[in-house]
Design a protein that fits this description.
This protein has helices spanning about 5-10, 30-45, 50-65, 110-115, 160-190, 205-210, 215-220, 235-270, 285-290, 325-330, 340-350; strands at about 15-20, 75-80, 80-85, 90, 100, 120-125, 130-135, 140-145, 195-200, 220-225, 275-280, 295-300, 310-315, 320, 335-340, 355, 375-385. With about 400 residues, it is of the alpha+beta class. The strands form 4 sheets. Strands 1, 2, 3, 4 and 5 form a 5-stranded antiparallel β-sheet that branches. The protein has a 5-stranded mixed β-sheet with strand order 8-7-6-9-10, with helices on both faces. Strands 11-17-12-16 form a 4-stranded mixed β-sheet, sandwiched between helices. α2 packs antiparallel against α3 (about 50-65) and α9 (about 285-290) packs parallel to α11. The longest helix has about 35 residues, at about 235-270. The two termini are about 30 Å apart.
Length: about 400
């Protein structure tokens, strides 16, 4: 999961109010339940020491949230009397609203409550071009249009010599447009960062475009069985089926990606002949890796006990240590106590690392289960000389 959108809350000092709120009520008493839940959040934050301005900002923001079964919930992150970020949730938090007050934003629940499937670039194709749409955690939005040649496009049944030449020209137009669409899709995919490509519409042209995609994009491209470029009023059933195909393609990519990451993690835990490892697990090893910007992919198992472990942090993402006395790693700051998962997520976002939740997906057939030990692990940007012993705080120089 890409968490770059969290940068605004990691670029500011805390303390932070972190709230996960259900907005799916549509019953007759929904307004009363909504207000009661907002009051509950206010009181929870007060009991944890949150300042009055921040409590009021959160309370007012919660009351202003629209209620809809199509919008299950919202997260809010606030500090110094201001709600800084309020991303939508794909699933409502269970057991009522959740509210915490701490030195860092509590972001781990986002891995379970937001849409973590990859962004998909949907191309609705015909023989003249394509309309593009992005589908992802942000919802859906138009992503432009590709327009090819519009003449000649239609073959004729006549079989004489001149007509055969014309029909060859028609097929040349189709082939030209397929190549043009494929090249533009490569550019758009690179620009948008979409990890999945779905081709829908004219079957012949979709296959022609697929065959012309660069190999690295062809492997993530799916040809849908439904959908057209310009759906009419009678195409509702086809659109519903296309929607399911798009979501299936996103889910399939997620499953493959998690399985590959877990396989790499399992292999990286085994030391090479010279004693180096390409993966880390356990809070001391991960803290060392975070300080040295060695984390390439952070793996989080939501039920792991290490998520709640205490670490000490400073103002900067790489100012993190297992013990408060490790001032050489915390800089000229007043270290504060924080959860290990919050500190490591902050570090991962700051250094551009990927974050993967390995909860239910890690239990899929063929995927190593029960890893990482303790619930936190990482694939490293470069191998290093081995994990420190439990309780160790010394850094490991890259080798």
């Amino acid at each position: 999961m890409e968490l770059g959108f969290l940068s605004p809350i990691f670029d500011r000092p805390g303390p932070w109010a972190s709230v996960y709120f259900d907005t799916s009520w549509t019953t007759e008493d929904a307004a009363a339940r909504h207000e009661l839940a907002a009051r509950e959040v206010h009181d929870l934050l007060k009991s944890q020491g949150a300042d009055e301005r921040t409590r009021k900002a959160v309370y007012d923001a919660l009351l202003a949230l629209p209620r809809s079964s199509a919008s299950p919930g919202r997260a809010l992150f606030a500090t110094a009397g201001e709600v800084v970020l309020d991303p939508a949730l794909a699933r409502a938090p269970s057991g009522g609203p959740h509210a915490t007050w701490g030195p860092l934003p509590h972001t781990t629940p986002l891995l379970e409550l937001t849409d973590t499937a990859p962004t998909c670039l949907l191309a609705r194709i015909d023989r003249t071009g394509a309309d593009l749409e992005l589908r992802g955690p942000f919802g859906r939005r138009e992503a432009g249009q590709i327009q090819g040649d519009d003449w000649p496009l239609h073959r004729t049944p006549n079989a004489d010599w001149s007509e055969r030449r014309f029909q060859n020209s028609v097929e040349n137009t189709w082939e030209h447009n397929a190549g043009l669409i494929a090249e533009n899709l490569r550019t758009r995919q690179a620009e948008t960062g979409a990890e999945v490509l779905v081709l829908a519409g004219d079957t012949r042209e979709c296959h022609a475009v697929h065959d012309r995609l660069a190999p690295e994009f062809r492997g993530t491209a799916v040809i849908a069985e439904h959908g057209v470029r310009a759906p009419g009023r009678n195409a509702a059933a086809g659109e519903e089926k296309l929607e399911k195909e798009v979501e299936a393609a996103r889910a399939s990519y997620t499953h493959r990606h998690v399985a590959e990451a877990m396989e790499r993690f399992q292999a990286g835990r085994v030391p090479t002949d010279d004693g180096r490892v390409g993966a880390a697990e356990g809070v001391p090893a991960l803290v060392d890796a975070a300080r040295e910007h060695r984390i390439s992919t952070l793996l989080v198992r939501p039920d792991g006990p290490d998520l709640h472990r205490e670490v000490w942090v400073g103002d900067e993402p790489d100012q993190v240590a297992v013990r408060r006395t490790d001032v050489q790693y915390l800089g000229e700051t007043r270290p504060v106590s924080a959860r290990a998962d919050d500190a490591l997520l902050r570090s991962a976002v700051a250094t551009g690392a990927e974050v993967i939740s390995v909860g239910p997906l890690a239990e899929e057939p063929g995927t190593p289960g029960g890893l990482p030990v303790g619930g936190l692990g990482a694939l490293l940007r470069w191998p290093y000389g081995g994990p420190p012993a439990e309780g160790s705080t010394g850094g490991s120089a890259p080798s």
